[in-house]
User: Which sequence fits this backbone?
């Protein structure tokens, strides 16, 4: 993923050298212009944007469909060596109720903090164990322990923040593991699979059968004792 963003950055730089450097990188729909706060420590920029969901978030059962709109709210705060983004992502997550398998479509809110350093070289230098862009093999064991901010690239000499990797990482991590269509979902009948939410009084006759067997048995026993008694 990092390699991808690096090559993306390089291609933007090449593009920019010929075109003045303020062209929106058209190869990325996730580029967000931050030029007004970039390299201006102390400045903040409000973000209210919508991006298409990147590919590969979840699967057919729980996930975000590629291209579905993710709303991003928050702000970029400029510090001496980069931009700090804090905010929320609001994504349309599709899921399945884990009890009754009913499809659920719901907006999910996720809190986000990320760092976009000015110096691309510091991308790796600043990464702490647990950062999602660190070499996977190296840090797999401790991955997830450290919830510190993650590091993402700026492109075009700090003119744009690229949200693609940040969106993907955040959404993948934020996907619900357990989803219920409602807190008191009754689930499916273990015997016939009918959705018990649609038929709360549903039951099977086997229960009654058992009673009738008992009743028969009781009658039989009664008969037996009366016979013995004589
Ligand atoms: Zn359900
Ligand atoms: Zn049933």
Assistant:
């Amino acid at each position: 993923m990092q390699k991808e963003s690096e090559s993306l950055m390089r291609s933007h730089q090449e593009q920019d050298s010929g075109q003045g450097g303020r062209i929106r990188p058209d190869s990325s729909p996730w580029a967000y212009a931050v030029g007004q706060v970039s390299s201006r420590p102390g400045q903040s920029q409000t973000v209210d944007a919508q991006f298409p969901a990147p590919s590969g978030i979840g699967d057919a059962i729980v996930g975000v469909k590629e291209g579905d709109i993710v709303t991003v709210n928050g702000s970029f705060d400029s510090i001496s060596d980069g931009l700090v983004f804090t905010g929320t992502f609001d994504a349309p997550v599709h899921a399945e109720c884990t009890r009754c398998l009913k499809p659920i479509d719901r907006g999910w809110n996720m809190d986000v903090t990320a760092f976009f350093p000015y110096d691309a070289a510091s991308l790796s230098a600043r990464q702490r164990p647990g950062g999602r862009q660190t070499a996977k093999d190296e840090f797999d064991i401790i991955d997830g322990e450290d919830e510190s901010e993650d590091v993402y690239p700026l492109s075009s000499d700090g003119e744009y923040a690229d949200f693609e990797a940040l969106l993907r990482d955040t959404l993948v991590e934020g996907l619900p593991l357990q989803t219920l269509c409602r807190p008191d979902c009754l689930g499916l009948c273990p015997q016939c699979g009918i959705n018990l939410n649609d038929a709360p009084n549903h039951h099977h006759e086997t229960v009654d059968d058992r009673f009738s067997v008992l009743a028969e048995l009781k009658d039989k026993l009664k008969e037996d004792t009366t016979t013995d008694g004589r």
User: Anything to note?
Assistant: DSSP finds five helices and ten strands in the chain. The pocket of zinc ion (ligand 2) is lined by residues 189, 191-192, 194, 202, 204 (CB under 6 Å).
